[in-house]
From TrEMBL:
CDD domains: HPPK. PROSITE patterns: HPPK. This is 2-amino-4-hydroxy-6-hydroxymethyldihydropteridine pyrophosphokinase. Residues 94-105 form the 7,8-dihydro-6-hydroxymethylpterin-pyrophosphokinase domain. It is an enzyme of class 2 (transferase). It comes from Novilysobacter luteus. Belongs to the HPPK family. Catalyzes the transfer of pyrophosphate from adenosine triphosphate (ATP) to 6-hydroxymethyl-7,8-dihydropterin, an enzymatic step in folate biosynthesis pathway. Its EC number is 2.7.6.3. Keywords: ATP-binding, Folate biosynthesis, Kinase, Nucleotide-binding, Transferase. It comes from the Bacteria.
Amino acid sequence: MSSPVVAYVGLGSNLGDSIGLLVGAIRALGGLPGTSVAACSGFYRTPAWGITDQPDFINAVAELHTALAPHALLTGMLGIERHAGRERGAAADRWGPRTLDLDLLLYGDATIDDPGLDVPHPHLHERAFALVPLAEIAPDAAIPGRGPVRDALAAMAAGDIEALTYVAPPPSAAR
């Protein structure tokens, strides 16, 4: 494994105990080999995107310091999703309800266009539900080819996103 890279993971859920699922996922991310959770945004209630006839989502973003390569990190993230009861692949799953959704938003300053892995997340700059929590913990993070997170967020409406009073566990509790 190489020296740690800063990566940002978007978390979302709208089925079951969404807050509990996100807390468990944050802990599981910190348990991946060579990985620690350095920061976590608060939790936000966001309207469903894509298929809108479904429950609101709870979203957050975690900052990881990881020695895992991007594909190995993605494999770990997919395992965490499966453990939470999510199986990717169904066409309805793309924007439909889910127990847990983990997206690799940024991996250092890397730009990756591989089958199954696009970094930065190809629609990050268009999705307030990811930008609002990301801007909370990393407003100056650069979206390769787009600029700072804060600028992407400033260019869109985010008034329908509600900060929850629940606060995500601090990084030390996320392990």
